[in-house]
Structures are given as structure tokens and as C-alpha cells.
Amino acid sequence: MKTADAVIVGGGCVGTSALFHLAALGTTNTVLLEASSLGSGSTSKAAGGIRMQHDDVVNTRLALRSLQEFTRFEQLTGTPIDFKQVGYLFLLDNDHDFAAFTRAAAAQRELGIPTEILSIDAVREMVPQIYVEDVVGATFCPWEGFAAPEAVVQGYASAARRLGAEIRVGSLVVEILTDGAGVSGVRLEGETISTRSVVIAAGVGSADLARPLGFELPVHGEARTIFYSSQALGVPQSAPLVVDFSTGFYFHREGAGLVFAGRQSDPAELSEPATHRLPAIAEASIESSWWGYYEMSPDHNAMIGQAPVAGLHYATGFSGHGFMQSPAVGEYLAETVRGESTTLDLSSMTADRFVSGQHRTESFVI
Ligand SMILES: Cc1cc2nc3c(=O)[nH]c(=O)nc-3n(C[C@H](O)[C@H](O)[C@H](O)COP(=O)(O)OP(=O)(O)OC[C@H]3O[C@@H](n4cnc5c(N)ncnc54)[C@H](O)[C@@H]3O)c2cc1C
User: Which residues form the FAD dependent oxidoreductase domain (predicted)?
Assistant: First the structure.
């Protein structure tokens, strides 16, 4: 029977980040088990957005720590991730939302993040194609942008392999095993791996792995679709990722065209908020689309921590912002698996907040 110092379940951005950070810290007798192929879960469906603007300061700290890694990712892993640091532009169409984003911007500036409040004229100048007549206010942070999630997964995976970690794809974990001392291993079809540390980073599959151990991870999948049009509609190449916050409609330049999405998966339903904010989109044809699961938690914040079973760690329920947090979350998981003090304090993110009633709601969910 194989014995590992740690087993990671799930080969998305979070699992591969944890594997890489463990290896970088010197723990290389590790195995990552992925049921399908690397990145095949929510990660490969993500828009790749990386943003600092959150209303929960823990999310901003996670994003900031992650940004430090995204900006030197190629240097760290050898893999380019096509990070386009064009900023996020949030359009707010009511006083309540504008006040919330203004408060959050002040908190971000206290952390050294240059989030600014933009005038409507500045918005017009940035993206002249946007309808701004009903916009009450806007915020913009130039450090934000988007990168390629598959490249991040491949970068972490290949760097971890080079350091000695093992990755197995097509390897479904059927059960996490325990004994009197806590976690004792994982069972695959036809094989058992012995270990005292398991990290559940299985996206929407995480709940099914935890439940048999008497531990609830309340995560559920919410289907989200993204569309691509090869027509850029005059939107400048330098345009930020634009978010119409109240409707959730967003778009950004992608190659010669535009990527856009919203809360509606049916293009006919999306067309109303989309044509309102970007009237020219009525002329666009959709060349392709894809969908995946937002892995939702009850308060739209991630669940990250150690389970009541000794040696069992988890990170799931990112509610649509797991890609941008994956570097810092992987680092945190690696530190806790190794029993070290952690770079960030994520003690408020544990899943037992849903039992104790201490929800911490993130409301800037796109
Ligand atoms: C349309 C869309 C747009 C998004 N846009 C953004 C964005 O702009 N920015 C952002 O930060 N986030 C975004 N997200 C969210 C982001 O994709 C996720 O939060 C993130 O990818 C979660 O990564 P993960 O590694 O935890 O999960 P996943 O990528 O889902 O990886 C989990 C892996 O675990 C594997 N697995 C499950 N069960 C088992 C098992 N029993 N044994 C072995 N393997 C198992 C799965 O096959 C899967 O590959 C978006 C999501 C969607 C769907």
C-alpha cells in the first residue's frame, strides 16, 4: 500500500495550488487525485477574473495575497498565465450599492489597494459604448483583470511534479478512511493510499466526501454560462472587465472579440440587461458558449479549514470567486497541513460558522 504525507482530492486551481505550495515548502511525498482531468471542474469554466473589490475584508486580503502570486506566476512556476491587468469597472445604478462600494473602496485603500471612485465622464471615456444615463456611480481598481485558469492549473501541476509531487488523473476517491487517530487514508476503486492528512478540494463534489464522516460542507452547484462573440463592437482593447452590478451582466475583451455573461444562462433572457448596458451587443452573434458550476455556500463565502476529524482539511464553496483566491488558499492549506503558522488568518472561514450561526456574508457576488 502506498503511503503519502498528504493526499489532495481534486485537481482544480485550489487542489493544484495546495499541492504546489506543499512541495514548495518541502512536503513532496504527496499525491493529488483527480477523478477526471486536471482543471475539468469549475476551474476550466471560469472567466478567470481576478479582483480586489469585495465587501468582506477577508476576501480582499485573500485576493491581495493571491495577486502577489499571479503577478510573478511565470517566474515561480515557469508557466505564463496571460494575466491582463486591465482593471474591473463596477457600474452602480442605485445609491445603496454605490454607498456599499464606496465604503469597500475605502477599506481597500487602507490595505494599499488603489480602488478609485470614477466620475461618469471617466467611465464614458474608458468604454464609450456603455450606456451611463442611469449610472449613479462607478468604482475601478487597476490592479484587477483576468488570466487563464487552465494555465494556472497546468503551471501549479507541472511545478509541483518537478519538485517531486505525484498527480493521478482519472482517479476517483470513493471514500476517506479514518481510524481512532483521525484520517488514515483514501480509498480509490481497487486501491487504498495510506495518509494522515487529506485535503478536500473537490469543488461541488466536496460535500459527498465529507458527509460519510459526519461532517457537513454545505456547498451546492449553481449553473453559470459564458458567451463569446468574435465582434468587439468597438469596445477598446484596453477596456477593463465591466460589471453591471445590479444585473450581474459583465463583459471583457477576449482576443478579437468579447466574452460576456450574467445571471441568466438563456441568451434570450440575458439580452435584456446586456442590451440595456451595452446597446451595441444587440448586433453581436454568439460564436460559442460554455457552462459550469459556481460552488455556492449559504453566505457566498468560501469554507476553508480543518474538520473535526484530525488530519482532514477542506476548501470549497467559493461561490464564484475561487480562481482569484486559489494562490492564497493553496498556501494556507499547505501551511495548515504542515502544522505551521499561517500567512493569513482564515479562522473565520471554517464551515462550522453555519452551525454556530456566525455567517459572514459576501454581497459583491457577480
Ligand atoms: C461560468 C463561471 C465563471 C467563473 N468566473 C470566475 C472568475 O472570474 N473568477 C473567479 O475567481 N472564479 C470564477 N469562477 C469560480 C471558479 O471557477 C471556482 O471557484 C474555482 O474554479 C473552484 O476551484 P476548485 O479547485 O475548488 O474546484 P474545481 O475546479 O471544481 O475542482 C474540483 C475537482 O475535484 C474533482 N473531484 C470531485 N470529486 C472528486 C473525487 N471524489 N475524487 C477525485 N476528484 C474529485 C473534480 O473532478 C474537479 O476537477 C467561475 C465559475 C464559473 C462556473
Answer: 5-335
